Amino acid sequence: MKGIKLWAGIVGIVIAAYILVTSGFEAAWNLLTTSGHFNGMIGIIIAGLILAGSIVRIAMRNAEDDSGSIISLVLFGVATALAFVISPIYHYMSGWAILCLVMAIISVIMIMIKDSRKS
Fold first, then answer.
1. Which of 5, 36, 75, 107 is 20 to 30 A removed from 52 (C-alpha atoms)?
2. Distances, alpha carbon 43 to alpha carbons 70, 71, 86, in Å
């Protein structure tokens, strides 16, 4: 289970880096062209939440309780909600919302596995 948390955290960091780079370019473009769009800033916030959740998942993989999985679940849940709310305006963010949802589901599975081993 520690290996799954480690690999899921690494994948989350890679995904967050990709979203951060693309959103940084979008934010810069929106600022330079004064287009009034805000998709770059929302993407940076989503990438920050994914990055934070993945770092917590990696750092707390050896914890005795479920605190790391719960914290990462909350961070991925907030990122999922934010991406789903903004996806009617910027349609490509629905893919990011699904990625965040998958990361949240992995956190729930890790909590369920740890709880089943306790009993």
1. 36
2. 23, 20, 10
Residue 75 CB neighbours (<10 A): 25
Query: What is the rounded distance in angstroms from the CA atom of residue 43 to the CA atom of residue 20?
Result: 7
Can you list the positions of beta strands (E) in 9-106?
A: none
Q: Domain coordinates of the chain in residue numbers?
A: 2-118
Per residue in 39-70, pLDDT tens?
Answer: 788 999 999 999 999 999 899 888 778 888 89
| Closest to 60 in 3D by CA, of 119, 1, 17 | 1
* Long-range Cβ contact pairs of 86-94 (< 8 A, separation 24 or more): 86/39, 86/42, 89/39, 90/39, 90/42, 93/39, 93/42, 93/43, 93/46
In the prediction, which pLDDT does 119 show?
A: 64
